Amino acid sequence: MLTNIAQVSADLDLNSARFSHTWCACSSLRIHPRSRVSGLSRRCLPVGPASSRLILRAASDAASRGTNPKLADHFGNQSRKEDGFECDSSLREVVQSTKEAMVALQRRNPSIQPLLAIVQAGEDDSLLEINKKMAGKIGLNITQICLAKECSEDEIVEEVLKLNEDPRVHGVYLHLPPVAVTTRVLDTLKPEKDIDGISDLNMGRLVRGDLSKGFVSPVASAVLDLLEKHDAPLEGKTVLLVGGEGPLGLALQCLIERSGMVALKSNWNPKSLQRQVMQADAVVLLEEGNMDVPPTWFRPGAAVIRCEPTLGSVEHALEMSSKSGLGYLTAAYRAQNVLRSCSRWIQEQQYRPWRLRSLKLQPLMPVPSDIEISRAQIPKPVDQLAQEVGLLPEELEAYGRSKAKVRLSLLERLHTQPDGKYILVAGITPTPLGEGKSTVTIGLVQALSAHLKLNSFACLRQPSQGPTFGVKGGAAGGGYAQVIPMEEFNLHLTGDIHAITAANNLVAAAIDARMLHEATQSDKALFNRLVPSVNGVRRFSPIQISRLHRLGINKTDPASLTPEEVSTFVRLDLDPSKITWQRVVDTNDRFLRKITVGQASTEKGQIRETGFDIAVASEIMAILALADSLEDMKNRLARMVVGTSRSGQPVTTEDLGVSGALAVLMKDAIKPTLMQTLEGTPVFVHAGPFANIAHGNSSVLADKLALKLVGRDGFVVTEAGFGADIGMEKFFNIKCRASGLRPNVVVLVATVRALKMHGGGPNVSAGAPLPKEYIDENLSLVSGGCHSNLRKQIQIAHLFGVPVVVALNVFKTDTEAEIDLVCQIAKECGASDAVPCHHWAQGGRGSLKLAQAVNEAASRASNFQFLYNIEMPIAEKIRTIAQKVYGADDIELSPAAKAKIDYYNQQGYSSLPICMAKTHLSLSHMPDKKGAPTGFVLPIRDVRASIGAGFIYPLVGTMSTMPGLPTRPCFYDIDLDPATEEITGLF
């Protein structure tokens, strides 16, 4: 037995006690400046669920009573048998199913609260109570944006754009006059939030029959529901739609025809309308305004439904809706759409399987120049690449067509997603020419993704402009294993290095300015300037309060400080001879290695010696690479030590008051940059710390983002700078400690050229022709290099419990005998596998054997372990690296190094990991000692600390942090075609 509509309404009323609860949980009300809103005591103003009211009338009843169908005020008084419709049961079914779906959704996602946002013009509160009651019944939240009655198109668009980007909003209902819902407004509204189904895309989906992503008009759904539950089955019968050329009419026509009925359309034409109405089994009147249809026109038993605008008063609307139940039914369908939108949004947040479209390569012989190869391939639009690898549009910040920043919110979205496999590409001790770790990294991911169809990401460092214009040229890989566009990769990229330069030099400026002001002002004058009175009120800034707390002064009122506390607070008292912070520039400029500052008369004699480093040598770059969140980066920036006070206390950037500004300058740089390889596989480019004085690895964040995106069975391939004794050791002991990540496989890159050098071959110099030993076959030199340097580097990897696959980067001068010998000896020395790689000439296809070997090695368990306990004394950690990694007998600490170690112990820095700064051209500290030297003592001339980055770096020999330009720099070959804007000379 069906419960009547009045009872459904009463049931809803019973829940009114908790409506205030649900209503107050709504988002805050935004009121447009031009609007006038009454009832401001309410946090949210309710709004009606539809822009039209449904009036339903059984034709037989209308005919017998002689009532005009457009005035169906007494419909609710008819018995259920007479009206022939089951609005009450329809409402109950929709409400119940929606409530059950809501409970299920919130059981799985308790923090999610579906929210409907209503954009309204004017103060028409029609049908608002219905929406409130339906929200309370189902558990939906509603927020309303009230615009002025005569609001402009721009004002509507502005509000819609805000709602589009608000992740809390799952549905947007435009409760606006039809004239205000313009094409521009519809184009602005995101289809996934268009729960009334009025956007072009949603209408197209409905016409095509694809409702997996679209929405159907709640009004149309309510009308169809009533038609389908008419006493006389309407399947195969004719439904006449009168008037209405808009979205509602089209939606109804599609739904009616899909339900097995025949839909006919007719305009309001009295000449033909009477005949059509008399022949129809059901009539739906869609025309706005007054439509006077004589009752005698309708067939006995025909269903008559009228959709007309809600133009009446609130009281009238509520009266009509409570009598007929149709307003509630429409509101219920709209709530159902909001819940469906929320469920889809939650599903969109889940991990997405990749749909990567690889780019085809057609390698040429001979292999063209790198830039010719790069230009011959058209990269995919970066938003397309992002979509293919499972990134959401809101997680992308495009920088042009082919590169984009990726937001760190991805980590939170995919925090439950298992990580993929973690592969490190390292190398044997290189020649000055480099052995191709970057090309191997790129060739490997091209092979994994484009050929083996395994998800893979390359994570690379951003090249410094210094080497690009100095001695190296481009750093985007080479041959058919490149990141494209290679010009953008090598030049500026997304400006991260410039941000680091600006932040670093802001610290330098703050240091000298503070020293000047302290030297020329009294304590009182300093305090008055550092804590100025603004509008008669003097307050400490948050960063100043932090300094007070570190000084043990737990006061927040500037007037309460004693003279002694004021002096302690305002005076950093930096010792000019112990300032460790230098300025930076991203150019090889040897004449900036030592400079004198403060020589202008305005600096009042504050002259001191300082210098410049290259930008990538800045501690801020090391921090960027090691931070695992924006908060972590901010904290690390605050901990950076810039010098020592005359009393021997470290002075930090937070003491200078500049650390917050540094975070602001770095807020975009912390996001990795997405690019692609020649074969369309994804690459993260992020950070570029030097590997001699810093840890020489790309960022922790890029690796973490990539590991989530590739999925459990995917691969993230990251590269460590220089040889395994430097880049790999620092990757394990520093980067893995900071990230908590554990590698599965080490790919050790070797070349016949480097092995011959370690086997006793003559010196190799950049820019000079290769000696004949490196061009002609020489198995003896190859064997010597394998049994010395290659064996030692494999052993170093095994110290950390990680399997090794040797990748022999094949050059055209290598012979088959030399290649076979390297692979054979590498396996004898403990490598899991050793394979030749031809990626430079063939792209990913040339690294298929390497990809298969890595896949197999990664399937076996890795027993990763750190080389040393972090709590060991500083000297013992240095000794452990020297003996176990470099092969030294012992270390020798200079008096300066011993003094620094004592100082760092005193300051509580002894538990930091070690970042050795030594030559990359030998396992020892002597660049000319090749192979695997033994029997030497490693001299430690100084020990320094990067407290913000989080490591101690001992100096082995003289290390330059500012390269110089050679006689003929690379910039001789770099040029621009002004007509085409094409760059030449970058390889």
Automatic annotation (TrEMBL):
The answer to keyword Ligase applying to this record is yes
CDD domains in the record, alphabetically? FTHFS (cd00477)
Q: Which family does it belong to?
A: In the C-terminal section; belongs to the formate--tetrahydrofolate ligase family. In the N-terminal section; belongs to the tetrahydrofolate dehydrogenase/cyclohydrolase family.
InterPro entries from the xrefs?
Answer: Aminoacid_DH-like_N_sf, Formate_THF_ligase, Formate_THF_ligase_CS, NAD(P)-bd_dom_sf, P-loop_NTPase, THF_DH/CycHdrlase, THF_DH/CycHdrlase_cat_dom
Specify the protein name.
Answer: formate--tetrahydrofolate ligase
Look up the record and give one Gene Ontology term from the biological process aspect.
tetrahydrofolate interconversion
Superkingdom of source? Eukaryota
Q: Which GO terms describe its molecular function?
A: ATP binding; formate-tetrahydrofolate ligase activity; methenyltetrahydrofolate cyclohydrolase activity; methylenetetrahydrofolate dehydrogenase (NADP+) activity
Functional pathway: One-carbon metabolism; tetrahydrofolate interconversion
EC number(s) on file: 6.3.4.3
Swiss-Prot/TrEMBL keywords? ATP-binding, Ligase, Nucleotide-binding, One-carbon metabolism
Q: How does it assemble?
A: Homodimer.
A GO CC term attached to the entry? cytosol
Which residues belong to any copy of the Tetrahydrofolate dehydrogenase/cyclohydrolase catalytic domain?
94-196
